[in-house]
Amino acid sequence: MIGGVQGSGVDTSAQFFAKAAAAGGLQVFGKREYYSNIKGEHSYFQVRVSKGTIRSHVDTVDMLATFEEETIFRHALEVRKEGAIIYDPDLDPKRLDQVPTIESNVRSVLNAELSKAGLSADVKGILELARRRGVHIYPVPYNEILKEVGAKHGETSLSTLQRMLNTMAVAASFALLSYDENVVKDAVRKQFKSKPKVAEMNADAVGAAYDYMEEKYGGSFSFRLTPEKVEGPRLFVRGNTVVAMAKELAGCRLQTYYPITPASDESEFLESHSEIELDGHTAHENPQAAENIALKAKGSIAVVQSEDEIAAVTMAIGGGLAGVRSSTSTSGPGFSLMAEGLGYAGMNEVPVVVTLYSRGGPSTGLPTRHEQGDLRFALYAGHGEFPRFVMASGDLEEVFYDTVRSFNYSEKYQTPVIHIVDKALANSDCTLGMFDVNRVKIDRGDFLKEITTAVNGEFKRFLHTPTGVSPRAPLGTKGGINWYTGDEHDELGHISEDPVNRDYMMDKRMGKLDLADREIPIAERVNFFGPENADITVISWGSTKGAILDAMEWLKSDGISVNFIQIRLINPFPTEYVAKLLSKARKIVGVEMNFSAQLVGVVREKTCIPIEQLVVKYNGRPMSAEELYDALKMIHEGKAPKKLVLKHGA
């Protein structure tokens, strides 16, 4: 873990650590935590590294690196026995009461711990308490080392040199782990490749940190980190970026947004990569084959920052009416404003994709923290009744392929699709294998390029069909006029309040959910993990997936069998399949990141099967594998309350 003042480069340094580990062939999973202000408050980044598969974060810290005092006060006691703390010894006299950004309850707990141990309420005191608990303390005089590096490059400005504090802290960490110095230097050079002089100075800072740590502490730390050889290329990506890449591959060519955390990062990535190098092949199975031919392998996506979320969703709907694959991205408060637009899309059977980055609510809530509190809202947002699909991905690989499916479902069934990507996924970084583009197929549904069935020059946009899905032609298509209105309408789109027509149109629209329920393979809707018969059956959705799977492995080694039902397509709900699985379960546990266990309520509504045992968390921090392991073990032993609330997080 590395922490510091927000805006001081904590994210950059953590990315540097993670990329250097990934460059050495190691598996990486990163979790980013930050306050909802631009600068000043505390932020920290946890990076977990392993030779094997890694899916989630854990609560205990093996190594804490910092260059300021607040990180020490907040996280020193999270470091495990035999772990390490790397810090600047100039911080020793800094007092707890001199850090105004630490909350009063945290301050009270720390004061009590230090007082009980007979220690002073300063950095020196908290580090001594950690040392008594078996933690190794490694003071590193950053400024002294930086001055030596600066002298080599003719740089004497301390303020300029201190920009390399992050590099020093990361390099000292790697040096203590005896990690290959050249891999770290290469990572630094890539980080600053656009500034060769800065890159070389930072590379020299890495070397100086390695020299100091070897001379002062060589061999004193038992942990080691060794590069691994891996076959083929891999990705190191963040959740928002994965969504953006998938949208471009899926053929999304209009993205609208109004800035909001944590959704904005996706649109900003698209803005900076708006020119698309289309695949040079024109094979039929290539998802961009037709576009490639038409545009000679040079495509683009229009990204529009609108004046508000109402404009964002209606612009995206306009794109859908014009025949362009369109989407918008937002978070809870913005999605609230989109409800009326969703109703218009539902009434007019317009394909549009909304990526909903779920965060803590209500109101502005916890703008930069995690929660799964928007499921019910996503299912029912908008007045009246109209079909919509609601998807929720559980990891970054699913995020990629589910993003593509969102566009396919939206166009095939001519409905809005809400793709929930919660904050924990949005701000996670991890190593992945290369995405398989050959798995991506584009299905535009009954999409006409020419109208040949016009009636007196008017197109029957809402034509009665056996499936309820009518042929769709973009606005401006030659051969007939499209009519769209927010009111109920007939086949031509003309306003109608006739009761017979109303019944038909409602049945037509809502029947698409039954059609999709029959057509979409169960493998795209539900994942089932673990043995068919198990002591505990967990049912959940979204980003809890990684922690659940990791906890399952640990429990298996304890002789406790667990299986896991992960719901991905929540509407239309896979009622029959889920009911069949749950009917075989011995003990069912609902695991969710919200107060009321919203999915559990949906399951009972759809299957009539009650789930009495809950594990929930709603303090804004994602569930860890350790928390779930402990919770499920307590449940197995019969020691847990019916609603077990997890509370870990700083």
Q: Explain this structure to me?
A:
This protein is of the alpha/beta class and about 650 residues long. The chain has four domains: about 1-215, Pyruvate-ferredoxin Oxidoreductase, domain 3; about 235-440, Rossmann fold; about 445-520, no CATH class; about 525-645, Rossmann fold (3-Layer(aba) Sandwich). Helices cover about 40% and strands about 20% of the residues. It is built from 23 helices and 23 strands. It has an eight-stranded mixed sheet, sandwiched between helices. Helix 7 (about 165-175) packs across helix 9 (about 195-215) and helix 10 (about 240-250) crosses helix 11. The longest helix is centred in the first third of the chain and has 22 residues, at about 195-215. The chain is globular and about 85 Å long. The chain starts with a strand and ends in a 5-residue tail after the last strand.
